[in-house]
Amino acid sequence: MTHPRTVLLGVERLGEIGAFVKEMDFNPLSVNFTFAIQVMSGMKKSNWERKMKVFERLGWSEEDFLSAFKVQPKCMLVSEEKIVKPSILAKCPNLLLYSLEKRTIPRCLLLRILIKKGLIKEEPGLFWMLNICEKQFLEKTLIKYQTLFLKY
């Protein structure tokens, strides 16, 4: 169990959260329904509303927000500083979960080197570059062009 505090909620509070999540049209049999309940149970209503307002200030409609929350309920757990370009996040809310220092910046730097050296003709899309797993990313970039990197 990753969130034992959910079990410790009172029956009434858990029922309120379940009803609220169900109103958002989550499938009660899906894993995201469970994640949504976990997120909601670990967050005060005031924090929820504050984060919703951050998304609204960025131009998100309620529909955009609910769409992102349905795809990735944990997007509400990230800090306000990680909430950036709304059009990108609405399409792929998982981007909020990635570390800038450990994933985004290193991958961008590596791809920039490969593009400058002419090894990659087309710049890959942001979603592809950040969403593929570490093993696939390394196979398609670093391992594929390892002889170039061994020279330096």
UniProtKB/TrEMBL annotation:
* Entry similarity comment: Belongs to the mTERF family.
Q: Which GO terms describe its biological process?
A: DNA-templated transcription termination
Give the matching PANTHER family.
CGI-12 PROTEIN-RELATED (PTHR13068), OS02G0749800 PROTEIN (PTHR13068:SF236)
Name this polypeptide is given: Mitochodrial transcription termination factor-related
Query: What InterPro entries does the database record attribute to this sequence?
Result: MTERF, MTERF_sf
Alphabetized, the UniProt keywords read: Transcription, Transcription regulation, Transcription termination, Transit peptide
Q: Where is the signal peptide?
A: none
Give any GO molecular function from the UniProt entry: nucleic acid binding
Q: Can you name the source organism?
A: Cinnamomum micranthum f. kanehirae
- The question of whether Transcription regulation is a record keyword is answered with yes
Judging by the UniProt lineage, the source's domain of life is Eukaryota
Q: What Pfam families would the database entry show?
A: mTERF (PF02536)
